[in-house]
Amino acid sequence: MNLEIAGRHALVCAASKGLGKACAMALALEGVNVTINARNREALESAAFEIQQAAGIPVNTVACDITTRDGQDAALATLPVIDILVTNAGGPPPGDFRDWSREDWIAGLDANMLTPIELIRRTIDGMIERNFGRIVNITSSAVKAPIPFLGLSNGARTGLTGFVAGLARQVARHNVTINSLLPGPHATDRLPAAQKYLARQYGSDVEAAARAMLELIPAGRFGSPEEFGLTCAFLCAASSGYITGQNLLLDGGSYAGTFG
Ligand code: NAP
């Protein structure tokens, strides 16, 4: 299937590892000019090299904290235009809401709600002018089914989801789409941290916590970043212009509702 996005320009945030990197890889393999971002320069350059080798096209990097004003300025300044925007950042820490201060909430909101909204604000009018835009937000299955120990994530990401649900309908006639991908447990560096937290909570070892997590997934496995990236690229296809305002769960069937 030709996604017909070769030559487009994409900014993929938080993409030196895991789900963001997989989205960048899938887009680059379609011939998209990809710019990736993360804070650690060494890991970022290594990811760019890997993507470049696989896709055979140059990959730009911007080492910065995308949740800061300076980081957003730096990331947006490097691209001539942005046709495809994949918003992403690290997830907030787990914990008990009794321990979270106002500052903790502001940090969670900044990373997982206000940063995507700001990046959308600064790119969407250009997309409208050019009559093409694909915005994909990496959120979480927690948007559909809150995860008790990830309250900051539940709150911030649901705020983003509500906001973009309205905006998606305002820009759809300009061939600008906004969708979110909702990962359930995927095999990335973030997963062991969740397993360690659960093990501490339940006084078990990490292996037992990992097995318990797996048992809750009908597919019987964790998601792979590669399949996640391919789904992202599909949503960015020229022919995906009629898909907007959607929240797509990639969770191996874990959400047990009749409608996904
Ligand atoms: P990951 O493998 O740990 O990768 C996170 C990436 O984000 C790294 O490249 C990291 O690089 C970058 N990053 C983090 N904070 C950043 C910031 N402030 N500015 C720029 N880059 C930043 O994580 P992942 O599993 O891909 O998760 C991606 C997102 O999906 C997270 O928000 C996570 O909470 C969410 N999610 C993941 C899962 C899962 O099972 N994996 C499930 C549900 C939701 P630097 O540290 O160098 O900046």
Descriptive report:
- It is a single chain.
- By secondary structure, the chain is of the alpha/beta class.
- 46% of the residues lie in helices and 14% in strands.
- The protein is built from 8 helices and 7 strands.
- It has helices spanning 18-29, 41-55, 69-77, 102-130, 151-171, 190-202, 206-215, 225-235; strands spanning 9-12, 33-38, 60-63, 84-87, 133-138, 176-183, 247-250.
- The chain has a 7-stranded parallel β-sheet, sandwiched between helices.
- The longest helix is centred in the middle third of the chain and has 29 residues, at 102-130.
- The radius of gyration is 18 Å and the shape is globular.
- The two termini are 25 Å apart.
- The model has no long low-confidence stretch (mean pLDDT 96).
- NADP nicotinamide-adenine-dinucleotide phosphate (NAP) is lined by residues 14-20, 37-40, 43, 65-67, 88-91, 138, 140, 183, 185-186, 188-191.
- NADP nicotinamide-adenine-dinucleotide phosphate binds at residues 14-20, 37-40, 43, 65-67, 88-91, 138, 140, 183, 185-186, 188-191.
Furnish the topology, listing elements before pairings.
Elements: E1 9-12, H1 18-29, E2 33-38, H2 41-55, E3 60-63, H3 69-77, E4 84-87, H4 102-130, E5 133-138, H5 151-171, E6 176-183, H6 190-202, H7 206-215, H8 225-235, E7 247-250
Parallel strand pairs: 1-2, 1-4, 2-3, 4-5, 5-6, 6-7
Helix pairs in contact: 1-2, 1-8, 4-5, 6-7
The protein binds NADP nicotinamide-adenine-dinucleotide phosphate.
NADP nicotinamide-adenine-dinucleotide phosphate binds next to helix 1, strand 2 and helix 6.
- Could you say which structural class the secondary elements and strand pairing correspond to? alpha/beta
Indicate the overall shape: globular
Query: Would you tell me the overall average pLDDT?
Result: 96
Percent helix range: 40-55%
Instruction: Give the strand line-up of the largest sheet.
Output: 3-2-1-4-5-6-7
